[in-house]
Description:
Elements: H1 11-20, E1 25-26, H2 32-45, E2 48-51, E3 65-67, H3 72-86, E4 91-97, H4 101-113, E5 119-125, H5 134-140, E6 145-148, H6 152-162, E7 171-174, E8 196-201, H7 210-223, H8 230-249, H9 259-270, E9 276-278, E10 281-286, E11 292-293, E12 297-302
Amino acid sequence: MMDDVHDASNVATNYTTMYEAGMQVSLGCVTTKPCLEFKTLSHEDNVFFMTPSATADAVVEYDNAYQMCFADEKQGVTAAQFVSENYKGQTIGMLYKSDDEYSTGIRKQFLANLDKSITVVEASFSGDTVASFASQIAVLKDCKFIFMPIYYTPASQFMTEAKNDVAKDAIYYGCDGLDGIDTAVKGFDISTIPQEVSFLSHFNSKSTEGASGEFIKKYTEKFGADSLSQFGAAAYDCVYAIYGAMKEAGDKISVTSSPSDICNALKDVFNGGYTYSGVTGTNIKWTAEGFVSKTALKYIVKESDAK
Length: 307
């Protein structure tokens, strides 16, 4: 395992090092931009990979690539379905990052699939740092529901700056980019945000039952709760989904099989109706294009103070 530190320029060296060391299958990369580089290299060698968290649709461009996470298109569509069912005929807000593929990809599918009776007031930002969200707050402050297909760092800054301007009974709703907002942002205390903070997820980190409950119990006993998120859960499921598929492949795979032969055998399994039940879902399936199919849920990180 090697760290690309979210820098695509590190991927080629890391990939070559692991491949020459005997890598036969992989979990790819954690984030999208490095994984877009990884997908090309792995395709050239026909190495099977399943990423837990690189969400761009283009990550699974080639037939050796699969996702355990929801792709951006799926997140946008699923979020639109939720909003359409609950906010028909209403006006909602959206804050997105205009120079980020993750954010713009979700936004595009969200708008394309949203009920036409819903009006969307939009505000955007760009760049790695934002001096102030004052102009965006001015646009969105009257919205009782604000969709945020962005990552948790800018989201936490917006929420902090807007906490006295946006109604206390308003809802912030994001996608998997908000996972970790309650623990991973230095200096951010989510309890000071009066609004509800929630996001679309495939993992309930407060679960006490079933596979997810057992995973959480064992994880927190060993690592504590601060780093618990859907990303670790998805990586865990990647490993065991691949393991289950290898068992189904039977004698088509052995420890001496080449990466390419293993990839071909795994593709036959995953494209042949294989299902997996684990921490992030039950009866999980994959399309021939490598996209995952499983149930999404709304995970509430923090309840509204107005309740």
